[in-house]
Amino acid sequence: MVTKAKSKEAAPKLRVGVLGCAGRMGRALVRTIGAAEDAMVVGGTEPEGSPWIGQDVGVPIGLPDIGSAIDADPRALFERSDVVLDFTSPAVTALHAGLAGATGVAYVLGTTGTSAAEEQSVWAASKQSVIVRAANMSLGLNLLLGLARKAATALDLDFDADVLEYHHKHKIDAPSGTAIALGHAVAAGRRQDHESVATWVRHGQTGARKRGDIGYAVLRGGDVVGEHTVFFAADGERIELSHRATNRDIFARGALAAARWTRGKKPGLYGMADVLGLAD
Ligand code: NAD
Questions:
Q1: Ligand 1 in reach of 88 Cβ (< 6 A)
Q2: 216: which of 89, 176, 184, 240 is 20 to 30 A away, CA to CA?
Q3: Ligand 1 pocket mutation, candidates 89, 145, 171, 173, criterion most atoms within 8 A of CB
Q4: For residue 122, what are the contacts with CB-CB under 8 A and spacing of at least 6?
């Protein structure tokens, strides 16, 4: 019997582009991808006029020899990448998603605070490109989303649901995209229309809370990476489901897992539940 020798050739490294590579998340991504054996950073962008332009992608993390200069041209980055990661600003989500659609390059989008029009451009681009979109890429948080939905399904409307989030003082949108995703998970578990039950802000003479409403509360300060709690409070008992991120690397690891997962997938809009095999 003739047996074929197994090929020992390693798969080519995944070529990853990092938009906004000098940002807080951009740096965590460059560090995480740089440490992976099966992936490499092939370039990064910062906006026109940024002092980082022309410097090596490694410079913002103190590794000056990754071998690619920071550039202001996202199209060139898409053209030399297998997958591009975007943790930048909603102002450029439509531009970046459009480039993903035009080039067919996979795109992992973590930017939060996007408008309905920007979401629409992501949806349109997903006809031509594999897009993974998640307001929070951590494994633990995605598990929390599933638990919140399950708890909401099991509990009746005697349990008042609120979502509390706490982030660093630099965060410019509120509530966090993750908090809103948790609110949606609660609404889905209870079969409610989220928009008609969401209470975004409470201030002044609000009156008593309405049965079935989902409230949001926001804290900002210091260097808090990200904390989320979903409360279910009834007369006499309260359930609190919490996740605390202490390190930005959890999001970067999730983003890299999403980047790896895009290989060989059909164009479409996916979430972390797909990446983690947690989808219904
Ligand atoms: P940051 O301000 O530290 O970094 C953003 C970077 O993007 C900056 O370096 C900025 O110069 C760059 N940038 C802005 N416009 C650009 C453009 N046109 N081209 C190239 N670069 C551009 O912010 P951050 O804390 O890194 O967060 C970035 C985004 O990611 C926010 O929306 C945040 O909420 C989100 N985020 C998502 C997750 C997740 O898991 N999905 C986790 C953390 C942060």
A1: yes
A2: 89
A3: 89
A4: 93, 94, 97, 109, 114, 131, 133, 269
pTM higher than 0.90: no
Nearest CA owner, ligand 1 atom 17: 47
Hey, what amino acid is at 33? I
Judge contact between 60 and 26, C-beta under 8 A.
yes
Contact 37, 3 (CB under 8 A): no
Q: Ligand 1 pocket test: which of 31, 85, 87 has the largest number of ligand atoms within 8 Å of its C-beta?
A: 87
**Tens-of-pLDDT digits for all 280 residues of the chain?**
444 555 567 789 999 999 999 999 999 999 999 999 999 999 999 999 999 999 999 999 998 889 999 999 999 999 999 999 999 999 999 999 999 999 999 999 999 989 999 999 999 999 999 999 998 899 899 989 989 999 999 999 999 999 999 999 999 999 999 999 999 999 999 999 999 999 999 999 999 999 999 999 999 999 999 999 999 999 999 999 999 999 889 999 999 999 999 999 999 999 998 998 877 6
